[in-house]
C-alpha cells in the first residue's frame, strides 16, 4: 500500500470506519489514481508531474479521511457499540460454547456411562476410545473457549485499531468467568435415575485460592498473545 | 464532498443529487462519475475526486445504489447503479432542490415570499 494510503487507512480505522469499507475505499482510490495518472500522461505531462498532479486532483488526505468519517452509517459495530462487541458478545459466545460442552458431557454420560453415578469417571477409557474422544472434545471446548473467544476479541480490536481498554475490559470479564465456572453432575436417587448436569459461577477467588487467580491470569495472558505479537510487529515495522 | 472554489455551505446534498441523477441514466464507476460531473457542469463544480467514493458507499449502504464488479479492458471496476429506493430519493431531492432554487431566485429578484420549502 502506498504511504499516503497507509496513513489514510490508519486514520479511518482509528475513527471507527468498518475495515471492509476502508479496504474498498482504498482499492477504489488506487484505481482512480491510476486513471488520473493515465489521463495526465496522455495530456503530455511527465510521469513525475502526472503523479503529483493526480494526487492533488484526488484530494488531500484530510479531505479524503473527513469525507469517509462523516458517513456515519459506514462505522463498524466496534465503534458504534464497543460495550456490546467486547463485553456482551464474548459473554454470549462463552455461554454458547459452555452450553455445547455441557451437552457433550450430559449426552456422553447417557451414552457411554449409563450406569455410572457421575460422568467424571471417564478416565478408565483407552486413549482412542470413541467415548474418550467424545468426552475430551467436550472438555477441550470448555477450557479453550475463553482463550479462543479472547483471541477473537483482540483480533477484532487490532483490525479496528480500538483503544486498548475496551478489549482489556472484555478480556478481564471473560477471564474472570473462565476462572469461576464450575460444573457439577448428579443423578436422581432412583435406579437408572435421570442425569443432571449443572453449571455455576463462583466469583470467590479467595475461597478458590491461588489456583483460581492463576487460572484467570493464564487465560488473560494466553488470550492477549495475538495483541502482544501485533504490538511487537508494529514497533518493529515503525523502526525499520 | 468538498467543492473547491464554491462556498461549501451551499453544497449540502448537491453531490448526492448529481450522483443519483447521473446514475439514473446509466451505470458508472467512480472515475466516470467525476468526469461526467466535470463535463456536464463545465467544471463549475470541481471536486477533490476521491471524496466521491464515501458518498457512493453511503448511498449504497442506505439502499439507494447497488454495485457490481465488472472487468473492463483487463481492469476490475466497481460499477454503481440506482435502485428503486434511489429513484424515489432522487425525485424527492430534485423537488426539494427546485423549491429551494425558486425560493432563492424569488428573494434575489425582490419578489413576494414563496411557499415553504419542504
What do these coordinates show?
The complex is a heterodimer of chains A (240) and B (118). Chain A is mostly helical and 240 residues long. Chain A contains 11 helices and 2 strands, in the order ααααααααββααα. Chain A has a two-stranded antiparallel sheet with strand order 1-2. In chain A, strand 1 and strand 2 (195-201) form a beta hairpin. The longest helix of chain A has 31 residues, at 82-112. Chain A is elongated. Chain B is built from 4 helices and 4 strands; from the N terminus they run E-H-H-E-H-E-E-H. Chain B has helices at 14-25, 30-40, 52-61, 84-108; strands at 3-4, 46-47, 65-72, 75-82. Chain B has 118 residues and is of the alpha+beta class. In chain B, a hairpin with a 2-residue loop joins strand 3 and strand 4. The longest helix of chain B is centred in the last third of the chain and has 25 residues, at 84-108. The chains are: A mainly alpha (240), B alpha+beta (118).
Write out key terms for the chains shown.
heterodimer; A: 240 residues; 11 helices; 6% strand; elongated; B: alpha+beta; two-stranded antiparallel ribbon; 49% helix; 17% strand; disordered N terminus
Helix fraction bin of chain B: 40-55%
* Element-by-element helix/strand order of chain A: HHHHHHHHEEHHH
The structure class of chain A reads mainly alpha
Estimate the mean pLDDT confidence of chain B: 84
| Physical arrangement of strands within the biggest beta sheet of chain B | 1-2
> What about the largest sheet of chain B?
2 strands, antiparallel
Radius of gyration of chain B, whole Å: 16 Å
The gist of it:
With 240 residues, chain A is mainly α. Chain A contains eleven helices and two strands; from the N terminus they run ααααααααββααα.
Amino acid at each position: 500500500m502506498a504511504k499516503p494510503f497507509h496513513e489514510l487507512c490508519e486514520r479511518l480505522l482509528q475513527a471507527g470506519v468498518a475495515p471492509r469499507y476502508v479496504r474498498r475505499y482504498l482499492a477504489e482510490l488506487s484505481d482512480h489514481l491510476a486513471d488520473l495518472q493515465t489521463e495526465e500522461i496522455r495530456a503530455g505531462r511527465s510521469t513525475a508531474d502526472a503523479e503529483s498532479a493526480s494526487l492533488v486532483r484526488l484530494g488531500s488526505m484530510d479531505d479524503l479521511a473527513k469525507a469517509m468519517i462523516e458517513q456515519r452509517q459506514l462505522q463498524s459495530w466496534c465503534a458504534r457499540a464497543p460495550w456490546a462487541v467486547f463485553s456482551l458478545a464474548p459473554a454470549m459466545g462463552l455461554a454458547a460454547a459452555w452450553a455445547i460442552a455441557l451437552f457433550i458431557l450430559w449426552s456422553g454420560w447417557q451414552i457411554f456411562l449409563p450406569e455410572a453415578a457421575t460422568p467424571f469417571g471417564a478416565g478408565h477409557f483407552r486413549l482412542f476410545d470413541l467415548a474418550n474422544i467424545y468426552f475430551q472434545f467436550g472438555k477441550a471446548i470448555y477450557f479453550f473457549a475463553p482463550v479462543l473467544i479472547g483471541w477473537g476479541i483482540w483480533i477484532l480490536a487490532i483490525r479496528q485499531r480500538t483503544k486498548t481498554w475496551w478489549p482489556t475490559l472484555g478480556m478481564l470479564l471473560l477471564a474472570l468467568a473462565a476462572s469461576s465456572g464450575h460444573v457439577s453432575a448428579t443423578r436422581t436417587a432412583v435406579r437408572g435415575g435421570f442425569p443432571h448436569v449443572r453449571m455455576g459461577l463462583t466469583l470467590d477467588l479467595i475461597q478458590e485460592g491461588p489456583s483460581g487467580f492463576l487460572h484467570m491470569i493464564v487465560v488473560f495472558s494466553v488470550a492477549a498473545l495475538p495483541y502482544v505479537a501485533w504490538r511487537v510487529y508494529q514497533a518493529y515495522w515503525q523502526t525499520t | 464532498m468538498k467543492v473547491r472554489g464554491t462556498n461549501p455551505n451551499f453544497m449540502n446534498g448537491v453531490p448526492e443529487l448529481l450522483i443519483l441523477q447521473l446514475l439514473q441514466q446509466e451505470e458508472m464507476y467512480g472515475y466516470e462519475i467525476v468526469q461526467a460531473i466535470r463535463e456536464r457542469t463545465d467544471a463549475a463544480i470541481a471536486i477533490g475526486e476521491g471524496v466521491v467514493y464515501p458518498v457512493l458507499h453511503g448511498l449504497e449502504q442506505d439502499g439507494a445504489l447497488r454495485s457490481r464488479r465488472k472487468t473492463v479492458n483487463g481492469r476490475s471496476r466497481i460499477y454503481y447503479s440506482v435502485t428503486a429506493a434511489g429513484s424515489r430519493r432522487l425525485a424527492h431531492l430534485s423537488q426539494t432542490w427546485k423549491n429551494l432554487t425558486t425560493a432563492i431566485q424569488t428573494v434575489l429578484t425582490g419578489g413576494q415570499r414563496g411557499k415553504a420549502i419542504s
